[in-house]
């Protein structure tokens, strides 16, 4: 494999000389004529090393360095500077540059520097930098990310949490709706009281009423004793009704009454019991559209939708991926007793570019798989689930619909099915539901792809 070197230099003659020299050493070289074009190149394709001039006209090397490392903190950047700018170069090292070289360049040292980086391309310094950033995010109740989208989310949570308003948390599967619900509870006046969770889709409609409101002894076959429901267990605290969109219409009527009257009636009992519970509902479905279609009660929708909190999908905040990767890396290295030291730049770049249809849950699964299967002390692209996949098969947010024009439909279908299957943790029924196909069809496709075991 030929290593990719990006040279960012606004002096055309010096840039051409470097390209010729470095290409003779066996590297593929790409030129950028200023800091802004250098940043664009990093975002548009993968590089192993960046050589970055300090002084440029449109965007300085220092500012370009900051933007490059913000996009991919694992990418090694070597600054090129005049003797008079050594202090600035030292400042660049503090920001995260790998090294600096003074002009006129010592070509032997340049070659040695490139070789040294490639020998240790899995850089501990960048990973340590990410780990330090990771520690600083603990303030936000296990919600990681500093992107504008996550900053807006956290701002909304901070405003809503201290109130007693019902909240509807929406977002695609795997985005972290339960974490947002927990943050709402943990930052509310109810934080010292119970936080009870229930997945409405995981319980049969006939049992859901009993799970929510409890039942009296002898209420039905097998009810040999009185049992408290989730609402009573959450008294004075909060309850999370996850997958609320899967609740049947008859059950929705009973839930609406609880929200209106602030009291429950256990199954098989005539007693009305007052409850003081903050309701947080979560769904990956469009309840407003369902209400218009008549599959979800409009009055219940309005009761639940006092405030809506929407969790952005991971593909809309790729700048948060390095933090999440390092977080999962630390967790799963410890869990699986593997001493994985970090992530290679090519792997981090691939994860930043991947569209993650299964969102954070899919990323988490991918990192754990990579930790378990890693052949070295560092995760490489080949350790990722899509690492050995042809790039045309990998969903990429940068290419859009045009990227799929010449891709066979069978290949797109395969990627969609396998990505959804991974995001659903191998649950075939859930995968079929998300894809909108029958379980029989899914099993046939998985057998075709060799994933039927």
From TrEMBL:
<dbReference type="GO" id="GO:0006355">
    <property type="term" value="P:regulation of DNA-templated transcription"/>
</dbReference>
<dbReference type="Pfam" id="PF00158">
    <property type="entry name" value="Sigma54_activat"/>
</dbReference>
<dbReference type="InterPro" id="IPR011006">
    <property type="entry name" value="CheY-like_superfamily"/>
</dbReference>
<dbReference type="InterPro" id="IPR002078">
    <property type="entry name" value="Sigma_54_int"/>
</dbReference>
<dbReference type="GO" id="GO:0000160">
    <property type="term" value="P:phosphorelay signal transduction system"/>
</dbReference>
<dbReference type="InterPro" id="IPR002197">
    <property type="entry name" value="HTH_Fis"/>
</dbReference>
<dbReference type="Pfam" id="PF00072">
    <property type="entry name" value="Response_reg"/>
</dbReference>
<feature type="domain" description="Sigma-54 factor interaction">
    <location>
        <begin position="143"/>
        <end position="372"/>
    </location>
</feature>
<feature type="modified residue" description="4-aspartylphosphate">
    <location>
        <position position="53"/>
    </location>
</feature>
<keyword id="KW-0804">Transcription</keyword>
<dbReference type="InterPro" id="IPR009057">
    <property type="entry name" value="Homeodomain-like_sf"/>
</dbReference>
<dbReference type="InterPro" id="IPR001789">
    <property type="entry name" value="Sig_transdc_resp-reg_receiver"/>
</dbReference>
<dbReference type="InterPro" id="IPR025944">
    <property type="entry name" value="Sigma_54_int_dom_CS"/>
</dbReference>
<protein>
    <submittedName>
        <fullName>Transcriptional regulatory protein HydG</fullName>
    </submittedName>
</protein>
<keyword id="KW-0597">Phosphoprotein</keyword>
<keyword id="KW-0547">Nucleotide-binding</keyword>
<dbReference type="GO" id="GO:0043565">
    <property type="term" value="F:sequence-specific DNA binding"/>
</dbReference>
<dbReference type="InterPro" id="IPR003593">
    <property type="entry name" value="AAA+_ATPase"/>
</dbReference>
<feature type="domain" description="Response regulatory">
    <location>
        <begin position="4"/>
        <end position="118"/>
    </location>
</feature>
<keyword id="KW-0010">Activator</keyword>
<keyword id="KW-0238">DNA-binding</keyword>
<dbReference type="GO" id="GO:0005524">
    <property type="term" value="F:ATP binding"/>
</dbReference>
<dbReference type="Pfam" id="PF25601">
    <property type="entry name" value="AAA_lid_14"/>
</dbReference>
<dbReference type="Pfam" id="PF02954">
    <property type="entry name" value="HTH_8"/>
</dbReference>
<dbReference type="InterPro" id="IPR027417">
    <property type="entry name" value="P-loop_NTPase"/>
</dbReference>
<keyword id="KW-0067">ATP-binding</keyword>
<feature type="region of interest" description="Disordered">
    <location>
        <begin position="386"/>
        <end position="406"/>
    </location>
</feature>
<dbReference type="InterPro" id="IPR025943">
    <property type="entry name" value="Sigma_54_int_dom_ATP-bd_2"/>
</dbReference>
<keyword id="KW-0805">Transcription regulation</keyword>
<dbReference type="InterPro" id="IPR058031">
    <property type="entry name" value="AAA_lid_NorR"/>
</dbReference>
